[in-house]
Amino acid sequence: MVREIHFPPKIVEKNVQIPWTKEQVMEVFKSFDKDEDGRLSKEELKASFKKLGSLWSSFRAWRALGHADANKDGFISMQEIGELISYALKRGYKM
Ligand SMILES: [Ca+2]
Ligand SMILES: [Ca+2]
Questions:
Q1: Could you tell me the pTM of the whole model?
Q2: 46 in a domain, yes or no?
Q3: Which of 10, 14, 44, 93 is close enough to 88 for a disulfide, judged by CB 3.0 to 4.6 Å?
Q4: Is 42 or 93 the better-scoring residue by pLDDT?
Q5: Which residues surround ligand 2, an ion (CB under 5 A)?
Q6: Long-range contacts: 39-43, Cβ < 8 Å, 24+?
Q7: Is position 5 within any domain?
Q8: Ligand found nearest the CA of 32
Q9: What is the CATH number of the domain that holds 68?
Q10: What is the pLDDT of residues 58-69, one digit of tens each?
């Protein structure tokens, strides 16, 4: 199944930061789950950060898997990503 992500045109054109909802961010990460196992491997995570990194510089701070991988199994589950986003939003990161 191919999921399509529609980026807000303003971001694509001007690379300006506008607020994203948690749901939108989750959709972006889900779109990088290429093997559809419901979690992101290091490679999948890297690919998503490569895509998102230019938009959200604050995400770079999370690159370390140790921070995102709460149960240390080497994969980032959608639940872990959800918690990570909640944490970031609480800390006032702008997405
Ligand atoms: Ca996967
Ligand atoms: Ca994990």
A1: 0.62
A2: yes
A3: 93
A4: 42
A5: 69, 71, 73
A6: 39/75, 39/76, 39/77, 39/78, 40/75, 40/76, 40/77, 40/81, 41/74, 41/75, 42/74
A7: no
A8: 1
A9: 1.10.238.10
A10: 455 555 455 678
Note the Cα 57 to chain centre separation in Å.
12
| Pairing assessment for the beta strands 76-77 and 39-40 based on DSSP bridges | antiparallel
Instruction: Show the domain range for 59.
Output: 22-90
Closest ligand to the CA of 39:
1
| Domain annotation covers residue 95 | no
* Nearest bound ligand to the CA of residue 43: 1
11 by Cβ neighbours in 10 Å (0-12 / 13-18 / 19+) ranks as middle
For the record, the structure tokens of 31 come out as 């779109």
Number of domains in the chain: 1
User: Are residues 25 and 86 in contact, defined by beta-carbon separation less than 8 angstroms?
Assistant: no
